Structures are given as C-alpha cells and as structure tokens.
Amino acid sequence: MKMNRNREERRRFLLAKSTEEGLDVPTQDIRLLGRLFPYIRQFSFLFTVALILMPIMAALSAAQPAIIKYAVDAMVAEELDTLTKFALLFLGAVVAEFVVGFIQTYTMQLGGQKATAALRSDVFNHIERLSMSYFDRTPIGRVVTRVTNDIDSLAELFSTGAITAAADLLKLAFYAIAMMLIDLRLALFTFLALPPLLILVNFFRKRARKAFRAIRFAIAQLNTYMAEQVSGLAVVKAYGKERESAEEYSSINDDYRRANYSAIRYDALLYSVVEAIAAVAIAGVLYFAAGEALGLEANALAAAYIGTVVAFYEFIQRFFIPIRDLATKYTVIQQGLASAERIFATLDIDELDGVGGKSPLPEEHEGPAIEIRDLSFAYRPGQPVLEKIAFTIERGERVAIVGSTGSGKTTLTSLLLRLYEPPKGSVFIRGCDVRELDVDALRSAFSVVPQDVFLFSGTILDNIALGTEPDRERARHAIERVSAGPLVASRGGLDGIVSERGQNFSAGERQLLAFARAVYHDRPFLILDEATANVDSETEAELERAVHHATEGRTSIIIAHRLSTIRDADRILVFHRGRLAESGTHDELIAKDGIYRRLHALHFESDQKIA
C-alpha cells in the first residue's frame, strides 16, 4: 500500500514537471498561422504555384457537373454529335484536373516539408541557445517531443491539413456559383443544409482542440518517462524495478490512450454528422426537383429539367465531398495547431545563454588571469551553493579546489564558463567581466575534463577533435601525452567507433579520451574536474604525469577528492559549505591544522584501509 502511494506521488511529480505553463490559455488560430508565414515565405515560389493552381483545379472540378447537364440535355434531345463533343470535353476536364491536381499537391507538400524543416532547425538552434537553468527544470523527453512529434504533427498541416483545406473551400465556392447559375432555387434549397452543419462544426471545434492538446501533453509525459527509464536502465535492472516501472508506464500510457479516445470520438461524430446531413440534403433536393418537374406543364420542359436534376445530384455529391474532407482534415488542423502552440511557446522562451556579452577576450592582461569578487549563487531560492567567494588566480598558476561533496566546487567552474549567471558578485577573466564577454570567445579559451564524461557517436578522432577540423597527427600527440595509446590501439585506432554516449567505453576510458580532448585543443585555461576519479591506480600515476606536463605554463583549476593528486599545486583552495574556508599550499594547510588537514587525514586513513 505504501509502495503504491509513493509511486503515485512520484508519478504526480513527474507529470508536474511535464506541465507547460501558458498552454492552457486558448491561442487564436490566425495568430498561430501568422507565425508560420515567415517559414512559408522562404519558399514562396512553390506556394505561389500551388495557390495559383488551386482555383484552376476548383474550376475544372466545378465544370464537370455542368458538362454532364449539357450532355444529358443533348442525349434527351437525341443530338449525338453534341453529346460526343460534351463527352470529350468532360474527359478533357477530368484529365486536366488530374494533371493540375498532381502539380498543385506536389508543390504544396514540397514547400510544406521545406518550411517545417526550416522550423525544426530553428527550434533545435533555439534549444541549443537556452541556458542551463532551463534544462535543470525541464524534462529531456519534453524537449525531444518539441523537435520531433510536434514538428511532424505540424507538417500534416501542409500535406493533408490547413493549406489543402483552402483548396476545398475554393471548390465549395465554385460549386455554389455553378449551382446558382444553373438553378437558383435548387441551389438555395441545397444551402439550407449549411447552417446546422456550421453550428455542429463549431460545437466540435473547441472540444477537438482540447482533446488534441491533451494528446500532445500525454506524448510529452510518455517521452519524459521513457527517457528517464532508458537512461537509468542499469539501475532499474539492478534493483529489480522492472515491474514497477512497467506499471508506471502503463498508467501514463492509459492517459495517452484516453486522450486519443476523446479525439477519435469527436472525429467520428463530426464525420458522421456531415455524412448524415449530406444524405438528407440529397434526398431533399431530389424531392424538391421532382416536385418542380411534375409542376411543369409541357413534357418537353420536364424532359429538359432532367439534365438539371442529374447535374445537381452530381453537384451535391461533389459539394459535400470537400465538407467531408474538411471534417477529416479539421482533426489534423486541430492537432497541428495544438502542436504549434507548444512549438512557438518553446521559441518564445527567452532564457538564453550568454545574452549581452559581445566583447572579445583579451590576449594579454597584466593583472590576475581569473578574479572572483564576492560571488554568491543558488540553483534554487533559499538554498545557496556559493556564498561570498573571493580569490584570484595568476597567469600560469595551478590552483586546486577541494572540499566535501556539495561544497560548490563544480558550480564555480560552471560560473567561470558562464553556464549560469551569478545573481551576486562577479567573475573576471583577464580583467573582463564574463557577462561582458562574447560567450563563444570565453569558452574557446577553456579546456575542460569533467568527471562525468560525455562522448558523441562517431569515431575516437571525432571526439578528440570535437568542434574543430580533425588533425590526426595532433590527435596522436595528445593521446600519447595522456598515456591513452594502448586504449586507442585496442579499439581500432583513431577511426575506432564510439557508440551512443560512449557506452562501449568504461568510465575510466571515457575520462582518458576526455583528457586527450583537452590536451588536443591546447587552450590557455584548463579545468580538471575529478579528472582521475574513474581510472585505476596505475593509469592514475601515468595520468598525473600527463597532467603535470599539460598544466605547465597554463592557468589551471584542478578539482579533486583524491588529495594525493594535488600536492604539487601552487595553491589549494578549501571550500566548506559554500564558502572559501582556507587557502594555501599543501604544507601551509597541513600546518594550520584546519579543514584541509582533517580531509587529508581521512583520505590517508582511507588509503591505508584499501591497501
């Protein structure tokens, strides 16, 4: 019972994280379509061709029932030559409609695919520019949904949705005009079916939009949960959580199924209503036309009226085909617009990374290479991670930062790279506030070896030369510097394959490759965040020698839990509960008999027990 309650609480937390603010307020369809216009304008030639062909295709379609009328009139009058001419004319109209329809559909869908591809690129580029704080609180599954499912749903607007619906509306207009020209009274009688149909369509419109918004929301929930479970699959298996995970997924999947049921119900009801009204309209027109024909005094006039009745039967069949299509496409339109709400809501997020900084990083500076002034930071209000930190690092100095877990060591490096904006205090690199520097210029001055290394799918060379044109000789030199030669050779050399997230390498092997990446880029600032945390003792000894060579003449920040790796640092900064508690060399800090000495003693005892 307690397990089920905890599971339900966790699920509510997960779904709450998937909730998107601002999407419950109805958005005007015209405004959404207006925001799509810039993407359509990029491929205006294709859309212009498609739009020009729309009325031509509608006119050809509307001409066919009229041709049938005159062909029937010729048949009744036994004018075979005239009948033959109209038969050939009808054939020509059918062929022309097919050719024009093919070109119109092809150009429209080609333009639509190009427009949605451009939109997809813009969404991806915008997501890449968002700040890290956005991703701290946003599930990855939701982000993926915006670029994949929602864009695909919006693409349906061009292939089977809103744009082709415009062609259907044109057909309706041409049919209406043709019917009124042939027989105004029969046309007006036919149009009596439109008011109740429009009322019902409007009734279903709001409910369909809500249903499709619920579907998009449920998809985001599914993707969020799936991404979390796949990422932690090893832990799920290790703790035997498969059944519980499957039950949670099934529960979320039920929400998605119910949302789809609601949309299907409205879709089926709308289609059935259109079919029923069309059938009633045909029956009514035939009855009205029969009464009109019986009321004619001369048999010749009654016979001539046959062509009009046949034409109207064909007109009504064709008239309600676009309406039936519109009813079907309406669901696609609603689904696409519901996705458009989410896509443009993502594009409207203004939490951009590195906003405002445009200054280049100076090549030289007489003062400190890095200066931290009264720096405070918190990921969440009321939970400070750093408080009033202040220190300087001189050019070429090797500074180590130590402290217990959660003391703010890695957070400090994130602020140096301007991955987060400090609410209080300042960070200076070569005398320039990082908030004034161009963010690309700032980060291009740093090489970083994180504790949790991320490798991209591709080759070893691609990962070492990340972001630059690969240089094989330079990569080999970097590999030798970090003693990763045997590892690379065993994986097929520089062209060895790296699988998704580097899963075919151990944590220690990924760390070696990350260190080779840092040496390859040879930048003036070096950050080593637990660079030896996941390697064995033998490899650590070799890597420490590489670290020593790599940091020579370079401004370096070394974060370490293993205090044996930082004895030779020019200075050691001791962080404790978000504050800078101590500073000095190894010998000076040992002599102080403070936090560092206690950490060193604990580390020494731990090494003794392991030995």
> What structural class results from the helix and strand content?
alpha/beta
Number of helices: 22
Termini separation: 46 Å
Using the 3D structure, state the CATH architecture of the largest domain: Up-down Bundle
User: What is the tally of beta strands?
Assistant: 12
Counting structural domains, the number is 3
Report the principal-axis shape: elongated
Give the CATH superfamily of the largest domain. Answer: ABC transporter type 1, transmembrane domain
What summary fits the major beta sheet? 6 strands, mixed
Placed side by side, the strands forming the largest sheet appear as 6-9-10-3-11-12
At the first level of CATH, the class of the largest domain is Mainly Alpha
CATH topology type of the largest domain:
ABC transporter transmembrane region fold
Unreliable segments of 5+ consecutive residues? 15-27, 607-611
Strand content: 5-15%
Average pLDDT: 81
Radius of gyration: 35 Å
Q: Determine the fraction of residues in helical runs and give it as a percent range.
A: 55-70%
- The protein's oligomeric status is single chain
Written overview of the protein:
With 611 residues, the protein is an alpha/beta fold. It has 3 domains: 8-17 and 26-347, ABC transporter transmembrane region fold; 361-445 and 526-611, 3-Layer(aba) Sandwich (Rossmann fold); 454-522, 3-Layer(aba) Sandwich (Rossmann fold). It is 65% helix and 11% strand. The chain has 22 helices and 12 strands. It has helices spanning 2-18, 29-41, 44-76, 80-129, 132-137, 140-147, 149-159, 162-182, 184-191, 194-231, 233-238, 242-294, 299-347, 409-416, 439-443, 460-464, 472-481, 485-490, 507-521, 537-551, 586-592, 595-610, and strands spanning 370-380, 383-393, 398-403, 424-429, 432-433, 446-449, 458-459, 497-498, 525-529, 555-559, 571-576, 579-584. The strands form 3 sheets. Strands 6-9-10-3-11-12 form a 6-stranded mixed beta sheet, sandwiched between helices. The chain has a 4-stranded antiparallel beta sheet with strand order 2-1-4-5, with helices on one face. A two-stranded antiparallel ribbon has the order 7-8. Strand 11 and strand 12 form a beta hairpin. Helix 2 packs across helix 13, helix 3 runs antiparallel to helix 4 (80-129) and helix 3 (44-76) runs antiparallel to helix 13. The longest helix has 53 residues, at 242-294. The chain is elongated and about 120 Å long. It starts with a helix and ends with a helix. The model is unreliable at 15-27 and 607-611 (pLDDT under 50).
